[in-house]
């Protein structure tokens, strides 16, 4: 089943949705690079990636508004319009969460000891992989709905791995007698915000599963 089967006419919205999802995928890559730059104390590079992700989000917001306008004015059948809008809006919010974590880093400039780097990198990777799997599931929803399940289970897998990485790092942080309580709380909050990205990706996958059932009826 192709994306054209959802829309009444082909008005370029397929290209806009693809471009939007490309930006969402790119935001995860920028996030990884920016976080690695911060951990390596390459603050100039971190600032460059923060600027990049801000620009990416702005571009995604512009595309989201254009997609919403097209959905309401021209193309989507009424019974699917709300589902697609919700999916696009939720993915846009996920992109914003990547930016939000980097803004938190920019404002707080936490001191993250090297003994926590591997766990934090693992958590970052799990969050990005969960979102990427969700993006692939969305592409399948529009282009080949039979393939959605191939990606949905990966969202769940990476969300579970993110929970493990989050718990592992928090245990290390709070078990470290050399860290003050203020630093422990700061790192815990950072970890929870990153883990929240994977959580939201899984919530989105749950919603998508319902929309797939609706389209199959």
Question: What report would you give on this structure?
Answer:
This protein has 217 residues and is an all-alpha fold. The chain is built from six helices and no strands. It has one domain: Phosphate transport system protein phou homolog 2, domain 2 (Methane Monooxygenase Hydroxylase, Chain G, domain 1). Helix content is 83%, strand content 0%. α1 packs antiparallel against α2. The two termini are 14 Å apart.
Explain the layout of strands and helices.
Blueprint: H1 13-39, H2 43-75, H3 78-108, H4 117-143, H5 148-174, H6 181-216
Helix pairs in contact: 1-2, 1-3, 1-4, 2-3, 3-6, 4-5, 4-6, 5-6
Largest sheet: none
- Mean pLDDT figure: 90
| H-E string | HHHHHH
Class based on secondary structure composition and strand pairing: mainly alpha
The gist of it:
This protein has 217 residues and is an all-alpha fold.
Spell out the key features of this protein.
single chain, 217 residues, mainly alpha, Methane Monooxygenase Hydroxylase, Chain G, domain 1, 6 helices, 0% strand, disordered N terminus
């Amino acid at each position: 089943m192709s994306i054209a089967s959802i829309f009444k006419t082909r008005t370029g919205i397929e290209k806009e949705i693809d471009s939007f999802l490309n930006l969402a995928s790119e935001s995860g890559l920028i996030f990884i690079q920016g976080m690695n730059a911060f951990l390596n104390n390459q603050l100039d590079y971190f600032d460059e990636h923060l600027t990049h992700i801000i620009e990416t989000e702005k571009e995604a917001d512009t595309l989201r508004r254009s997609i919403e306008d097209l959905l309401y004015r021209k193309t989507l059948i009424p019974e699917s319009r709300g589902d697609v809008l919700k999916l696009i809006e939720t993915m846009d919010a996920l992109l914003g969460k990547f930016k939000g974590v980097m803004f938190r880093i920019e404002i707080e400039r936490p001191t993250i000891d090297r003994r926590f780097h591997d766990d934090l990198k693992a958590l970052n990777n799990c969050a990005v992989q969960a979102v990427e799997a969700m993006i692939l599931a969305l592409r399948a929803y529009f282009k080949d709905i039979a393939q959605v399940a191939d990606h949905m289970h990966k969202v769940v897998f990476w969300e579970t791995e993110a929970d493990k990485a989050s718990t592992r790092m928090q245990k290390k942080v709070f078990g470290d007698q050399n860290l003050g309580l203020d630093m422990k709380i700061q790192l815990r909050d950072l970890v929870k915000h990153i883990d929240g990205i994977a959580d939201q990706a899984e919530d989105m996958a749950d919603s998508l599963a319902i929309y797939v059932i609706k389209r199959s009826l």
